[in-house]
Give the backbone structure.
Amino acid sequence: MNLISLTTLPKALADEFDIINDIAEQVLIPIRQEIELCKKHISVMQFRKEINYQWEENGIDENELIPPALFHTILENGITHSSPLEDGSMKFKLSFYASGEYKQYDFETFGKNRVKIRPRAGGNGFVYVKARLTESYGENWEFTSQESESGWLTTIKIYN
């Protein structure tokens, strides 16, 4: 770790904690605030793991509200359970689609999937995500998370 990293890392950590403090007691937050939390987490993890993490987004509706730390949790799962590509990078992409019946978020992790020792239906991260979705939307949602050709795909559908 170089001198720039030693001075930048504490700032990135402080920024991430500031956002977490701001959202901790809220039921719903603006999607842009959630995205900023994810970006801060990526900058922290880039220092920790020395991996070139990249963030992309597509079709995000700035007026949408979501439960706090929803995508932050999914991002953390991607960082924890995936390995970088051959070029030392990993990319995360959040996309939003809306129809008359539902709103859908796709969160893609572009990386190599870790080899599974035993099958799992999900861990604490999934429990948190499902609990927050139920708290905000009752039973009017679907959550899927599975391997994809490029790494991992998590989809959240919220029905109107």
